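S.,

Sequence below, as promised.
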Amino acid sequence: MPPSAKPWQDNHTSSQQLIKDDNVSDDPVLEVRAVEIEKPQRLLIVDDEAAIRIILKASLELTAKWVVLAAASGEEGMSIAQAEQPDAILLDVMMPGIDGITLFHQLKAQAATQHIPVVFLTAQAREVERKQLEALGVGVILKPFEPEQIANQIRELLDWQ
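The prediction came back faster than expected:
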């Protein structure tokens, strides 16, 4: 450092000079790179049982780090699906009012929601009913389910990482 220089001064080119000389991109310290940030998957759960919604939401947010939306009825599920455009819907089959099958058909009839994959959630364990549901949606998850394993089941059905 020259004797006339102050300790807080340096002999490097000023930032104005770098900008003026158009050398900013050559300086690795000043180079900024865009980093692609992955957004978490967004899943809508539609189930009339509060306990199921709470368990699923907590489990999936904790284990999978997904954003989980929840609806207590078919009507609410349709409204949230249209407004939020989730990446997938986990849909209970047996619900009062608009049941899961009816809601599925309503979702597929709307341009805004027809692309959203649906996984059915059901206590119906009979193979005939399960096959009918699989023919409609992406897949079926049976109740009762293991909260620790549900994220992996959904990932497998939806081919999510």
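The helical segments are 15-21, 50-63, 74-84, 100-109, 127-136, 150-158.

Coffee later?
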